[in-house]
Amino acid sequence: MIRPVIDFLFRPQFESYGRINLAFYSIVLCLAAFIGSTVSVVVIAGAVFSSFHLGTGRLKWSPPEPIRLVFFAFAGLFVADLVSAAVHPSGIAAKEVIENLPFLGFAGLYAITVADRAQLLDAVEKTAAIASLLAVPVLLAVTPADHRPEMASGNSSVLALLATVLYLVTIGAADRRWNRWSFVFLAAALCAAFVTVLSGSRAMWLALVLVPVLRLVMYRPLRRIVTGLPALVALMACGAALLALSSQVFDQRMQEAVSEFQAIEEGDLSGSIGQRLRIYSAGYELVLERPLLGYGPGNERKEIADRTLELFGEGISFSHAHNVALSVMLRSGLLGLLALLAVVIVPIVAAARAPKDDTGKAGFFLVCGFITVYLCSGLVGLMLGHDIHDAVFIASVCFSLYLVFGRGDAPQQAGR
């Protein structure tokens, strides 16, 4: 019993890891809403395991050159926080830097991915469909009527992101197949969209619009785009009308937004949108004071609370600044913002420039879609900096780029 475990941990045969890859990406990308922070444990364990074997030389790091650039982008995100924390040291800054270590695990996770690309895509798509179809009854069963749903994610905004990831994968699967199974994937996409709407996270509703538009314009002639766009708009309008009639959450959140904007016009900033405006005002002043390296990761929370107290007579304390650019600038300044831009841009440019078969085209759509979903989350909320967000992001970029590039060559293993 012990010998197989030791062999698996210290003398693994990486060429046989195809089935493990299928399970790993299916669990992390599709089941996070059901198992919560367990996905971060899975990703961290995979990153530590693979990085250990990279360090010992048993696993060789020989990916296509664009993948190296993506890894350097992830490393830059870690280094930016490390430099800022070194300049503005504190206990919380050190803790935040340690929590960013999984970004360095991208190299190991990609190196250990050996599955057939088409099989990997198919497995994740089918798991996403099953998860989406199950999510609605589970959500309705476990969520009190007067609460925004969270499921196992522990936060309604996190659930919104996870559901939108499922929506992205199932929309792509439905269009890619374009056969009778497309109806199953479309039904799954509708379920995922319904969960996103029920979460009440209004910023993610934008992603529900952008994902099918992205799918429509990708790899299609202009004539099909022109004819398909009005049909897509009409379909979305019908969906919004149905939601308004059938979903109390949709109607309630829209009414709240309207009433809050009216209150803001009258000078009342006590609502959730008003709180964000106060944070933005305080954050803008803070950024101007330390634009290069920010205040150190984690330190910005106290700075925002102190500055909002100074400006508005009430301190507002959140774990982030409710906007990804502002949050990064406060954490690590322009250095951090450049690192974030690299993490967003480099994977898309790398995938766009690569020659692609059908599986590669699906991967390109997914990497564009994953980053779009995360940017929507970061518009007025959190993009990165939450264990589930970070784990799913690392895995999603690794998965989608693997569909585009594969291994580039045969798996290399030393020390047998």
Poorly predicted regions: 409-416
The beta-strand count equals 0
User: Which percent range fits the helix content?
Assistant: over 70%
The biggest sheet amounts to: none
Give the domain tally.
1
Shape: globular
Mean pLDDT comes to 88
| DSSP strand content | under 5%
Pfam family, one: Wzy_C
InterPro entries: O-antigen_ligase-rel_domated, WaaL-like
Domain O-antigen ligase-related: 187-341
Subcellular location: Membrane
Provide a compact summary of the structure.
This protein is an all-alpha fold.
Write a structural description.
The structure is a single chain. The protein has helices at residues 2-10, 18-30, 32-35, 38-56, 65-87, 91-99, 106-111, 117-142, 156-177, 181-199, 202-217, 222-246, 248-265, 272-289, 300-312, 324-353, 358-379, 387-405. It is mostly helical and 416 residues long. The chain has one domain (17-248, 339-405). The longest helix has 30 residues, at 324-353. Mean pLDDT is 88; it is low at 409-416.
Write the layout of secondary structure elements.
Layout: H1 2-10, H2 18-30, H3 32-35, H4 38-56, H5 65-87, H6 91-99, H7 106-111, H8 117-142, H9 156-177, H10 181-199, H11 202-217, H12 222-246, H13 248-265, H14 272-289, H15 300-312, H16 324-353, H17 358-379, H18 387-405
Helix pairs in contact: 2-8, 4-18, 5-6, 5-16, 8-9, 8-10, 9-10, 9-11, 9-17, 11-12, 11-17, 14-15, 14-16, 16-17, 17-18
